Amino acid sequence: MDLKRFGQKLKGKRKQSGYSCQELADLCHVNDGYIRQLEAGHKCPSMQLIFSICDILKTSPNYLFEYEAESVDKEILNRINKLLPNQKNELLYMLDAYVKYHQADE
After folding, report:
1. Which residues are CB-neighbours of 39 under 8 A, at least 6 positions away?
2. What is the SS3 string spanning the chain?
3. Percentage of the chain with pLDDT > 90?
4. For the segment 80-103, what is each residue's pLDDT rounded down to a tens digit?
5. CA nearest 22: which of 1, 41, 36?
6. What pLDDT is stored for residue 67 in this prediction?
7. How far is C-alpha 49 from the chain's CA centre?
């Protein structure tokens, strides 16, 4: 993953959406310095933060990471983007349990 490119895309989308670093940080419940570090390509956000940013900026992880998903991946992401924040957290817990269960089979 190219964090520099991610940061550029994030900064561009933030500005296009009319938010300052401080405003986006407040909406995401993080420090504005952390948003600046993301935009500079120095940090990689958590999945939860990625989803929050995408919800606020009305974009997708695919856009920010320049990821071309296959049709199944696109459908999964489309459905995830329709969830409320607490539902996304629940989904993460379920996915973790699912992965652990199937790793035990290996």
Report:
1. 7, 8, 10, 11, 14, 21
2. CCHHHHHHHHHHHHHHCCCCHHHHHHHHCCCHHHHHHHHCCCCCCCHHHHHHHHHHHCCCHHHHHCCCCCHHHHHHHHHHHCCCHHHHHHHHHHHHHHHHHHHHHC
3. 67
4. 889 999 999 999 999 999 888 888
5. 36
6. 72
7. 5
Two tokens, residue 9? 């895309």
pTM of the entire structure?
0.64
**Which contacts of 12-18 are long-range, i.e. CB under 8 A and separated by 24 or more positions?**
13/57, 13/59, 13/63, 13/64, 14/39, 14/57, 17/56, 17/57, 17/58
| pLDDT tens figures, 56-88 | 999 988 889 887 655 677 788 888 889 999 999
